[in-house]
Amino acid sequence: QVQLVESGGGLVQAGDSLTLSCAASGLTFSSYVMSWYRQAPGKERELVASITQVSGSTNYAESVKGRFTISRDNAKNTVYLQMNSLKPEDTAVYYCNARLRTARYWGQGTQVTVSS
User: Fold this and answer.
1) Cα 8 to Cα 101: distance, rounded to the nearest angstrom
2) pLDDT tens digits for the chain (116 residues)?
3) Taking phi first (over 0 means left), then psi (-120 to 50 degrees means alpha), and beta for anything else, what does residue 75 get?
């Protein structure tokens, strides 16, 4: 059974930093493109960042570019999202996603709340 478990969310003030982790099990982690999505109340789920399997190439939403960094450790089956200079508009539930061709897996999400 594939499991993705996010951790590291919490309540912080604007300008603070936070690092999210996603631990994967039940899949060949190194074969999957890993991504972070987020969803705020009343809004659609949006792609925040992604990282490829081999080259480690990254892609970021324009709203987080220069502030967030995605990375992966294939030996630990874990993907990270380092979040700096947090803004209130970053408040959302953050979800981990694993993709391989047509296969898609999601974690349960972790809440990030940024106060003004």
Assistant:
1) 28
2) 999 999 999 999 999 999 999 999 999 999 999 999 999 999 999 999 999 987 789 999 999 999 999 999 999 999 999 999 999 999 999 999 999 999 999 999 999 999 99
3) alpha
What length does the chain have? Answer: 116
Q: Which amino acid is at 54?
A: V
DSSP 11-74: EEETT--EEEEEEEESS-GGGSEEEEEEE-TTS--EEEEEE-SSS--EEE-TTTTTTEEEEEET
Q: DSSP labels for 26-40?
A: SS-GGGSEEEEEEE-
